[in-house]
Design brief:
- By secondary structure, the chain is of the alpha+beta class.
- The chain contains three helices and three strands; from the N terminus they run H-H-E-E-H-E.
- The protein has one domain: 2-Layer Sandwich (Histidine-containing Protein, Chain: A), CATH 3.30.1340.30.
- The longest helix is centred in the first third of the chain and has 21 residues.
- The protein is elongated, with a radius of gyration of 22 Å.
């Protein structure tokens, strides 16, 4: 194998490995695999809390989590339900922030 071929293969390997590592890291608009799993777990815990709560009953509340920030959206019947849903989300371990976009109908 010539020195140039060896060098070209080395660069190709570095580029391939660099791409694989980049796929596991997060960016401002994309979560890493670990962050995605954490966000899914947070979403599940928030939804469970909403369903089990007698005030919110999770009616028409949508929950999405991105990088430890929970977004609540949908409709609730009272201001109390809106505030309670936000508190339930804030109480879940791992939640850093809550965006409460719920609308009282």
């Amino acid at each position: 194998m010539t020195k140039m071929t060896h060098l070209a293969r080395s660069f190709a390997l570095v580029a391939l490995l660099g791409g694989a590592v980049a796929a596991c890291t997060s960016t401002a608009k994309q979560e890493s695999t670990g962050e995605y799993i954490d966000s899914s777990a947070i979403t599940t815990k928030v939804k469970a809390g909403l369903v089990n709560d007698p005030v919110t009953k999770a009616g028409q509340i949508s929950v999405e989590t991105f990088k430890d920030t929970v977004q609540l959206s949908g409709f609730v019947d009272t201001q109390l339900s809106k505030a309670r849903a936000e508190q339930i989300a804030r109480d879940v371990q791992g939640v850093r922030a809550v965006r409460n976009d719920l609308v009282v109908k």
